[in-house]
Design a protein that fits this description.
The structure is a single chain. The chain has about 375 residues and is α+β, with helices and mostly antiparallel strands.
């Protein structure tokens, strides 16, 4: 009996020693994960990162700044001065497709153990995305694809929980290389279930000197429309109570992009006295224009059909109908044709005391048209009839 206890005690001691050794090894490994990355010059491996990223994206990728990698307490990787080239296609001038002052990605540990690369947070400092169309109307993004690299470990999936964008820039160039649309001051959060979407963005942007709240989302396409990308966009200028919503579908993004959808807008009428009637809540109505239209186009031309502008809360119903054509290629122009059977221009024009500089009917029209086109991110030559 004593011998059995002795053997049992020896076994227990060896087990404790083994556990202590494993515990010590784990502590050593954790310490190494904390300390070793600080002593490794990851810039030596910059070429490996660039080569693999170039193979995966099919574009030339360059890292002009520092490369930093940490494993604990939270795994992350940071690249500074990242640039993705335009590609080898003719017609785009070989300029950068994407640039960023820094790109930082924090990874979730549990998904990594399952072969899933889940970036629970990504930070982009001063990113710049340049979109362009060639002479035919095809986009410089059409050959941008994510492919498999040659790394021994390939994640089973990639998801982006939160991409924080700071001081971003988005430009649209025409075939002659001239910048036609510039949207800067992009700040907000982008998220995606996978690299293929669907995507969501919520933030602020600036164009034509004004800040605007922007919400954007894409959705999964039905199987019968595999080439369609449903989108939803809402724009609200911060200086007004106006609201613009565009909802529709993009198609043929791999060639000449096409879009078809619906536009809805709510535009405040400044300087117009509200109707005497009260709203159901008892408050005074807010004079505004409720606008709806069908939008369709391809490349650099879009047609606006079935445009209906209803003047609300200004007395008897008043409607304006019409159509428009928008071109934003080498020539940026907006042609607007409106017609109405009856408009009470005297009432709508208001008076100088009501806040309108020019109370004449033509002054009213001259002030409404800019409000209608305020959602466009660039100055256009406007011809209104």
């Amino acid at each position: 009996m004593a011998k059995g206890r002795l053997i049992s005690g020896a076994t227990e001691d060896r087990l404790n020693t083994l556990l202590m050794w494993l515990g010590g090894l784990l502590v050593a490994i954790l310490a190494a994960l904390f300390v070793v990355p600080h002593f490794i010059d990851w810039n030596v491996h910059r070429g490996v990162f660039e080569t693999q990223a170039s193979r995966i994206l099919g574009r030339d990728v360059r890292v002009g700044g520092e490369v930093n990698v940490r494993f604990l307490p939270t795994p992350y990787v940071r690249f500074e001065r990242v640039r993705i080239s335009e590609g080898n296609e003719a017609g785009f001038g070989g300029r950068s497709f994407f640039r960023a002052e820094s790109f930082t990605m924090w990874l979730s540990v549990p998904p990594l153990l399952k072969g899933v690369l889940e970036a629970h947070e990504v930070e982009l400092q001063r990113p710049s995305l340049r979109l362009a169309l060639d002479e035919v109307g095809r986009g410089n993004w059409r050959t941008f694809k994510v492919q498999s690299g040659t790394l021994p470990f390939v994640p089973a999936g990639v998801s982006l929980q939160s991409v924080n964008i700071t001081d971003g820039l988005l430009t649209f160039d025409s075939a002659d290389g001239e910048e036609r649309v510039r949207i800067d001051g992009v700040n907000g959060e982008l998220s995606a279930e996978s690299l293929g979407g669907p995507f969501k963005f919520d933030g602020t942007v600036k164009w034509r000197g004004g800040l605007r709240d922007v919400k954007f989302a894409t959705f999964e396409s039905p199987r019968i429309e595999s080439d369609a990308v449903p989108v939803w966009l809402q724009i609200k200028p911060q200086t007004t109570r106006n609201s613009y919503v565009l909802e529709g579908k993009f198609r043929n993004l791999s060639d000449v992009p096409e879009f078809a959808g619906d536009l809805k807008a709510d535009i405040a009428l400044t300087g117009v006295a509200p109707a005497k009637e009260k709203t159901p809540t008892g408050s005074s109505a807010r004079p505004h224009i409720a606008l709806t239209a069908k939008v369709a186009g391809a490349g650099t031309r879009f047609d606006v059909k079935n445009l209906v502008a209803s003047f609300e809360d200004v007395g008897p119903p008043q409607l304006v109908t019409g159509e428009a054509t928008v071109r934003y290629g080498s020539d940026r122009d907006l042609k607007l044709a409106l017609v109405s059977r009856w408009l009470d221009l005297d009432r709508l024009s208001g008076t100088p005391d009501e806040g309108r500089d020019d109370p004449s009917p033509m002054g009213l029209i001259g002030s409404i048209v800019p409000e209608i086109v305020d959602a466009l991110p660039a100055q256009f030559s406007t011809d209104a009839q």
